Amino acid sequence: MVDSKFSSTMTSGYAFDGPSLLLGAPLLDGAVASDARVRVPLAMMNRHGLIAGATGTGKTKTLQLLTGQLSELGVPVFVADLKGDLSGLAAVGVSNAKIEERSKAIGIPFAPAAYPVEFLSLTGENGVPLRATVSSFGPLLLARALGLNETQQSVLAMVFKYCDDKGLLLLDLPDLKAVLQYLTGDGAAALAEYGGMSKATVGVLLRKMVELEQQDAGKFFGEPEFEIEDLLRTDPGGKGIVSALELSGVQDCPALFSTFLMWLLASLYRELPEVGDLDKPKLVFFFDEAHLLFEGASKAFLEQVEQVVRLVRSKGVGVFFVTQTPKDVPADVLAQLGHRVQHALRAFTPDDEKALRVTANTFPRSEFYDIPKILTSLGIGEALVTVLTPRGVPSPVVATLLAPPSSLMAPIPSAELGARVARSPLQAAYGAPVDRESARETLAARAAPPAASASRSDRRSAPAAEPTVAEQVGKALNSPLARTVAGTLVRGLFGVLGVPTAARRRRRRLY
To answer: Total domain count for the chain?
Structure first.
């Protein structure tokens, strides 16, 4: 039997009014306290969290469990699907003996359900293509995606500054390559006031971009650029739409896709208004394989990540990092994560033992559990849990038998996925790439013979004076950059191009 003091403590520690997400039932010495529930208050889901554990311990199913319940409660969700496991969110779950056994142990009947899912992709395969312009991506994030050192990063920042000042709009990688080639050739003198750059450094930058293009990652940069507001939608029945970013096609480019996720977060912070404390978050963002974001990152980059995580909460956005151990996340970021779902850890090596001790020390003390011991003895689908109560106080640590997700715990057939992508309302907006005039064409026109240049000028309705970046982007009808206030250019965290709230385009009605 479960100790009555334990059951009473767990019941009071997780007892609160209002909507909540059910995680499961408490465990003690292998017995389930089926009269108690482990829950997360919906109003606290913008306080950020961590889902951690060794491979195969159930992190993805926990993510799926939370995602389904958030959608049911009307909260849009963003998930990164690295292995293609999460497409089952769109299909009704199928019961089996293991699911029935777990549901009975927890004391909650299994209720199969499906959720509205938009499938997105960085390459356009198995999802609506997501794109960002190089200009809006910013120098710090692009340097991270290219794997640049600090010297190369400073050169890239200088090139962005030059382009901003001279009205050269960077939409894709060919635009940036054209600018670099120009600045090491005919335009070298133009960099005198910026400090200059060596041809060797430019050669490195060009090679890095070629590497990305060879891995098919160049498709990500361009237009039409993805609008952040398209992550914040509900379906006609009031369920939050799940935006599932398929990443299996870019597994060989971890720096790119992890940096892209950070761009999305930074853009959410830049574009969304302050809302304070809400009854439910505007969006919950699951950042899978979070260690890829932090590995080898510069101090400046990590400082910006910490700032985004700290500030985006006030915009109504909750962020959950999904990784193997808490030590994968820098201390300043980890300190911002109020909810913890820690699956089993395995201690096979001295490094594993060290990670175990570090993880155990990040949990509140418990009179019921030997935390280092239980972390290695948890089974699949079991986890140590502590969450923030509505008063902002951490709940008692409790080993939890997690409930099974209501949606399908397997990928949907590829044919069905393709059909869903084809009929997505986002396909019309983002399906076809747009290649409008930008830095590459502008520089080509400058280098053209006078007659050809004049002919080109006749075809364009541009003024005689060199246009500013804001004037150029104002011509783009299919880009969020068009929302920039005329005459202003604002780069915020990571150098991401800001979009003032007053200048936003009126949203398309997708439903």
So the answer is: 2
Residue 495 lies in a domain: yes
CB atoms within 10 A of CB 485: 14
**Euclidean distance between CA atoms 6 and 303, whole angstroms:** 41
Handedness of CA 500, 503, 509, 510 (dihedral sign): negative
CA dihedral 414, 419, 423, 424 (to 10 degrees): -10
Contacts of 293 (CB under 8 A, 6+ apart): 258, 259, 261, 262, 287, 305
Q: What is the pLDDT of residue 249?
A: 66
Q: Which domain holds residue 243?
A: 17-27+37-130+227-427
> How far, in Å, CA of 356 to CA of 276, rounded?
36
Between CA 73 and CA 242 the distance in angstroms is 12
Asked if pLDDT for residue 202 goes beyond 90, the answer is yes
Q: What is the pLDDT of residue 297?
A: 80
Confidence bin at 506 (pLDDT 50/70/90): very low
Averaged pLDDT, 393-417: 94
Q: Is the pTM of this model over 0.90?
A: no
- CB 282, CB 272: distance < 8 Å: yes
Structure tokens at 441: 């064409």
Taking the CB of residue 422, how many other CB atoms lie within 10 A of it?
10
Token pair recorded at residue 236:
């006609």
